[in-house]
Every structure is written in structure tokens, then in C-alpha cells.
Write a structure and sequence with these properties.
Layout (H helix, E strand, L loop, with lengths): L30 H29 L4 H27 L5 H11 L8 H25 L14 H22 L7 H15 L8 H7 L10 H25 L11
Helix pairs in contact: 1-2, 1-4, 1-7, 2-6, 3-4, 4-7, 5-6, 5-8
């Protein structure tokens, strides 16, 4: 199910936001506001994933394909909205892989992300992800229990590498060609598609993966599958970063046509 994912690096952890064409450039918000935005966004993302999964299982109990369609549609739309709303504040990473990619790209720049900020982002994302799963459980009257769905297999782990690499490539490909405004709809569309073309249903996000461990429902993942999934996602993030560096070696400004 969802990844993730998944938000843009359009606002580096420690740098000003890149505004769309014709819009004023936003001033970087205080760290606590950005961290709160990451916690809120990741929490709502997981609530969307888990909540729509529970709703789908209730509405279409005898049709798993329809359940996945309902779950993926809600996630794709919700993720795009969250990125659009919170992107100008925190960059809408909602994903430790995206935050780490942002740090790697900006670590040699004066305005690049600092490790302390990166740690705060990741802590907020994981905490928010867990909170989002607990919130979904409560909203649907489900008991909070550790998930029992074992998802780790060779095929699923390869799918997580592919899903996460694609997510990072989508984000960086758009940012490095000056099409920042397309990140929100493109990431939502990619994750919606990746639900279907990957055997893992595209978690593509360590914080979402950890959060989903706390709901033994349609979207849950057993603890034993979490670490393999996270390692596959980190590997996919590294591959996506390498592909983006090869395909788009320099970033164009937001006002430059690709």
C-alpha cells in the first residue's frame, strides 16, 4: 500500500522554499513549525492509508481487488493534498528516505540541511506515522494491536526497492527541471500507480512502514517484515538518487523551462 511517501524535497530541511513561477519566495519557517508539519503530515498520511484500508475492507469484504482500488485512490488523492498544503512549510517530506536524500544533496551547501534538523524530521515522521495508525484505529473502532500480516518476501522486497527508487526519481526529476509545482500531483499519481504495479503495494516509506505495524487491519505489516522493508526502501532511495544524479546533474530554476 502507500509509500509515502513520500513528499517533495522542494523545501530543504534548512533552506528557503522554492516558490512557483510568479509567486514570492517564502522565508524558511522555524524548525519547530517544520517539524510539527512533518509530524502532522505523516500522521495524516498514515491515517489515510490505514483508515481507507479499514473502510475498504468493511465496504467490500468479498473483493480484495476493489478494496485495493479504494485504498489506493484515497491514498493518492490524500497524499497530493498533504504535499500541496504542507510543502511550503516543511517541504512535505513525510518520509525519512526523502529527508536523507535532501541531506545528501545539500550537505556541502551553506543552506543545506543540518544533521540535527534531519534527526528532528525523521523523529517527527516516525512519531507521526505511529500516531496516524492509532488515530485510524480509534476512528473505526478497531482495537490497537500489533499487525500480524507478514509481507517480507524476495518479490516484495525487490518491489520496495523499485517503488522507492521511482519515488525519489519522480521528485528529483521534477525539481531538477524546474517543475516544482507538479510534485504534489505527480507524487500522488505515482504512489497510486505503484499500489498496483508493485507486489508490495508500494510502502516506499520507513515512517509509514513503522506506523502500519500498529494496526492489525487491511494495511498492517507484521514487526518481522518491518526491518527488511526499511532496508529495501533505503536501498531504493540510494538507487533513485544515483539515477537522478545521472539523468539530471544540475537543477534548473523554477522559472526555467525544461
Amino acid at each position: 500500500m502507500s509509500g509515502p511517501v513520500s513528499g517533495p524535497v522542494s523545501a530543504p530541511v534548512s533552506a528557503p522554499v522554492t516558490a512557483p513561477r510568479g509567486a514570492p519566495v517564502s522565508v524558511r519557517a522555524e524548525l519547530w513549525r517544520r517539524v510539527l508539519g512533518e509530524a502532522l503530515g505523516t500522521g495524516l498520511l498514515v491515517a489515510i492509508v490505514v483508515g481507507s484500508g479499514i473502510a475498504a475492507a468493511n465496504l467490500s469484504p468479498d473483493d480484495v481487488g476493489l478494496q485495493l482500488l479504494e485504498n489506493s485512490t484515497a491514498t493518492a488523492l490524500g497524499l497530493a493534498v498533504l504535499i500541496a498544503v504542507l510543502g511550503p512549510l516543511s517541504g512535505a517530506h513525510f518520509n525519512p528516505v526523502v529527508t536523507l536524500v535532501d541531506w545528501v544533496l545539500g550537505r556541502r551547501e551553506p543552506a543545506g540541511a543540518r544533521l540535527g534538523d534531519v534527526a528532528a524530521y525523521i523523529a517527527a515522521q516516525v512519531t507521526g506515522g505511529i500516531g496516524g495508525a492509532l488515530l485510524a484505529n480509534v476512528m473505526f473502532g478497531e482495537p490497537t494491536a500489533i499487525a500480524t500480516t507478514d509481507r517480507a518476501s524476495g518479490a516484495a522486497l525487490l518491489a520496495e526497492v523499485v517503488a522507492t527508487a521511482g519515488l525519489v526519481l519522480v521528485i528529483l526529476g521534477l525539481l531538477r527541471t524546474g517543475r516544482d509545482a507538479l510534485v504534489a500531483p505527480a507524487v500522488g499519481a505515482y504512489i497510486g500507480a505503484a499500489y498496483w504495479f508493485t507486489s508490495s503495494t508500494s510502502f516506499a516509506n520507513p515512517a509509514v512502514t513503522v506506523g502500519r505495524m500498529f494496526s492489525d487491519t487491511f494495511a498492517g505489516i507484521a514487526p518481522g517484515s518491518v526491518l527488511p522493508f526499511v532496508l529495501a526502501q533505503l536501498a531504493g532511495g540510494a538507487i533513485g538518487l544515483g539515477l537522478a544524479a545521472a539523468l539530471y546533474p544540475t537543477r534548473r530554476s523554477a522559472t526555467t523551462q525544461p
